[in-house]
Amino acid sequence: MQISKDDILAALQKLALPTGGNLISADMIRALTIEGGQVRFVIEAPSPEIARQMEPLRKAAERIVADLPGVTGVSAVLTAEAKAPALKIGGHAKPQEGVMKPAGVKTVLAIGSGKGGVGKSTVSSNLAVALARAGKKVGLLDADIHGPSQPRMFGLTARPASPDGKMIVPLQAHGVTVMSIGSMLAEEKAVIWRGPMLMGALQQMMMQVEWGELDVLIVDLPPGTGDVQMSLCQKSEVAGAIVVSTPQDVALIDARKALDAFATLKTPVLGLIENMAVFTCPHCGKDSHIFGHGGVADEAAKMGVPLLAQLPIDLDTRLGGDGGTPVALGDSPMAQAYAALADRLIKGGIV
Ligand SMILES: Nc1ncnc2c1ncn2[C@@H]1O[C@H](COP(=O)(O)OP(=O)(O)OP(=O)(O)O)[C@@H](O)[C@H]1O
Predict the structure, then answer these.
(1) What pLDDT was estimated at residue 190?
(2) Which residues line the pocket of ligand 1, CB cutoff 6 A?
(3) Whole-angstrom Cα distance, residue 291 to residue 34?
(4) How far apart, in whole angstroms, are the C-alpha atoms of residue 99 and residue 101?
(5) Which family does it belong to (predicted)?
(6) Ligand 1 center to 178 CA (angstroms)
(7) What phi and psi, each to the nearest 5 degrees, are found at residue 52?
(8) Pseudo-torsion of CA 249, 147, 200, 151, nearest 10°?
(9) Residue 168: helix, strand or coil by DSSP?
(10) What does the alpha-carbon distance between residue 135 and residue 122 come to, in Å, rounded to a whole number?
(11) CA of residue 275 to ligand 1 center, whole Å
């Protein structure tokens, strides 16, 4: 007989905590997996001292699960939250009262793409910096949970603190308040979560973070049209989305899908950005259209949405991204292009 997660949780619910409640009501079970008859889970204690006192409870939890029919082996591991509550691994989204939008945030702006690697995170970081330079209070939420790149792009290596164990204090860099799951986990650690856990992480990064008063919260979405994009657009009040694409056909096909997804989710598309539009040889000055030419402009015209910017392939953009100093901090033509984009959003009353 195949054991179910519900059977296990029901059994664990019977184990009372000395402080009242039980392992389930206190939300202490993480990463519950069942493979054949082998059950594994983590009991997360609120502090290392409490974890030490909970050893008898861990053994009792193993015993009670081992007694269930269909269970051939059990491994329960005790961990303690460090100082921070962090984003509890394996946490699902909790029922959300009202809109998933932090109280002090005026505008939520989503940056999406169909295909990966087209420069969505680069655009998000530089637009955030450019808006901050224009005097706006800016937050950046890195919702690319499987491939977070904002800590690197902002040069952030610290882990956000949580003095009260409930709310996370986000990090600041280059005038922008930044929150990324990449700041909560080791850089090489893979996140292998699906739907409900991705939604839980998004909810926590939105609602369990002290964003403070912000004119705009930019959300750097994962590529594609998956759970995070859907969850954000359905549960948060997204003022608009910007879709980044290269002029390449394979990117454009996916960009079209992203546009279609935003339309289905009734999120207004503010416009398209063509990234890596052209490469100008620094030696001979000749332009090469490495990823094709004009495709994004044509697409924007076809869809009736503005083409917000055409950004060239630029070495300093790549170096700035890798080095934690976004190119928009400087005064190069690229920085000016981002300043112009920020200005356009401000003048358009979006931010
Ligand atoms: N205009 C540009 N010129 C040169 N390099 C760029 C440009 N835009 C982005 N890049 C570089 O391309 C790489 C991919 O960019 P980025 O991570 O922003 O893409 P993405 O669409 O967010 O990718 P992912 O789907 O993995 O999140 C990075 O190394 C970045 O520095």
Answers:
(1) 67
(2) 113, 116-122, 144, 147, 149, 223, 275-276, 311, 313-314, 317-318, 321
(3) 46
(4) 6
(5) Belongs to the Mrp/NBP35 ATP-binding proteins family.
(6) 18
(7) -65, -40
(8) -120
(9) strand
(10) 20
(11) 9
Residue for token pair 């986990």 = 185
Kindly indicate whether the ipTM for this predicted assembly is greater than 0.90, answering yes or no: yes
What pLDDT score was predicted for residue 85? 45
Which residues of the chain fall short of a pLDDT of 70?
1, 81-91, 96-97, 186-190, 192-195
Q: What is the pLDDT of residue 132?
A: 97
Q: Helix, strand, or coil here: 130?
A: helix
CATH of domain 105-347: 3.40.50.300
Query: From CA 23, how far away is CA 10, in angstroms rounded?
Result: 10
Looking at residue 18, its pLDDT comes to: 83
Rounded Cα–Cα distance for residues 272 and 282 (Å):
27
Q: Which helix (H) or strand (E) holds 279?
A: strand 279-280
pLDDT of residue 28: 87
Tokens describing residue 301:
């015209």
